[in-house]
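Lecture notes, unit on protein representations.

Consider one protein chain, 326 amino acids long.
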Amino acid sequence: MKRRSPARSAVLAITRGHRVGEVRDAEAQRDESSKSGQVPSYPTLFEATFAALRTLGGSASNEELLERVIQDLALPPSVVEVPHGDSGMSEIEYRLAWARTYLKNAGLVANSGRGVWAFTPLGKQTNSIDGRDVVKRAREASPRKPRVAKRSAQQNAAEHSSARNAEQNVDPLLAWKSDLREVLLSLAPSAFERLCQRLLRESGFTQVEVTGRSSDGGIDGHGIVRVAGLLSFPVLFQCKRWKGTVPPTVVRDFRGAMVGRADKGLILTTGRFSVEARREATRDGAPPIDLVDGEQLVEKLRELSLGVVTRTVEVSEVDRPFFDGL
């Protein structure tokens, strides 16, 4: 029997290892794709979002709509927590963002500068909707989207694809959010803590101090919030550079470290909080903890002009009534 040399045996072992790794990677991708496939389709979410807004009294924030849709569709955590790539959002959050955009383009809802969604007069008069009809209305309302003459057999896949493409067409300037998240994730822990310290100071906190001691139960610092110039109370905060989902254990551990030191806590993260983490933060009988996720964090940085520059584009147009009056 011919024996293999040690070098050849090593090469074969490495090759087998690579093949095993490739198989595992492929299995992981299939598993992730399978989970993503369980997330409701866009037309279903159009209908669910519209119904949720009516249930909530005709106006609601993004977070309220998310919670209501999850409850109405009875979505399990295994579906709710499916991530949307490396965007810092879950797949359900991503698709609901498109759902709101489509409903807006169809003239059924509108949003304020504070991120509150409400029915338009047309939306108030509409009792129920068909998700596929919303797609048709949105396409007709936007001249940049080509009309589709007929539907293919792969209708669902086409709708999903057009929904993704449509949001990019509706608001192509949202790329800054992804860029900012990448920058935040690349910061050293101490730099991210200093950024959060600056953000809190710019937001009205005083005596903000970063402790950053690893043995401090997850508490990264403390500050004082003054309300209306009359009342003040101490707040402990934690800064987490997190790429995925923050679990409820983080909230529970942070609350445990707060005992006897402060009644209010704040967790800031680049990631997103799971549904269970949000529920844990407001659990009855426990000190409440405020949560700032990656989406809120980047918006706050833009609002305070911290690392984000907003430029105004000047648009010129012809004033025809001026010439008509000559």
